[in-house]
Design a protein that fits this description.
CATH class of the largest domain: Alpha Beta
Protein name: Cyclase family protein
Pfam families: Cyclase
Organism: Streptomyces achromogenes
CATH topology of the largest domain: Glucose Oxidase, domain 1
Strand content: 15-25%
CATH superfamily of the largest domain: Putative cyclase
Amino acid sequence: MTPDRDDPEGAIAAAAKECSNWGRWGADDVLGTLNFLDAAKRREGAALVRRGVSFSLAQSFGMDGPQKGWRRRTNPVHTMLDTGTDAALGTQGFPHGFGGADDVIAMPLQCSTQWDGLGHIFDHGRAWNGRAAERVVTSDGDLVTGVEHMAARVAGRGVLLDVGRVIGGGGELPDGFAITEEHLTATAEAHGVRVGRGDIVTVRTGQLARVRRDGWGDYAGGPAPGLSFTTAGWLHRTEIAAIATDTWGFEVRPNEFAHAFQPLHQVAIPHIGLLIGEMWDLEELAEDCAADGVYDFWLTAAPLPVTGAVGSPVNPVAVK
């Protein structure tokens, strides 16, 4: 059933009710769908390492990144504290010729390749598992579901769904293209891969390849291909542990409703408890998968255990 374009409020409420995981793992749960990624699933993922070739799925964390200042999001600012010049000039104060370099980085946690934590999005003042948002995230951070709780959990069977290659002409989907459940299913079938409980799913649209060719433009917040709001049921029913895309916002932009903003986030994070990744670089991995026809792999993508954070930079590594 296609939701009423003019009624985002009603569509969100209906999907939230249908897809809710509130209470599924108890009132005190802080992991959401990562509960599906258990020891057996990690053993399954580890067994997928055949060739030992590895791929970083992270964009560069540099000042030339995609951010344009929306909601005070900036690109990383990297500053040296000690340099080779200091060592050569002998100003560091170390004995017997010892010298070194140190550096510092300042950055929003959601400015490049990252995970959205469970405290990142609310629905009508409710956070994951039905908690009151004001009691979960305060000026002290996420007091309940901070990403530090996930630090040891995000490692298991990864799956690539290269929708850009299977559905899109020339390997890329156009901006504004809404990826439906049918597109996801058709892509999995074309790859000969299954998607199910505990998987970490990556979805390539090809947008990152396009902006690298043409320039960042409005990559950070502008029009983009992405998941349709109608995939909420698929995200819930498949019992995947996490999902990540090569786009800024995971879901299709512009959104499919009039006067709406990221409605799929509003269902997926606070109601499904789903871990969402954005701005992942799937290009090199996708080329390798197309070459050998293998679309599942060992994937580790631990968030930085920043106490109370609602998101985290990540360097995901896929090993085949």
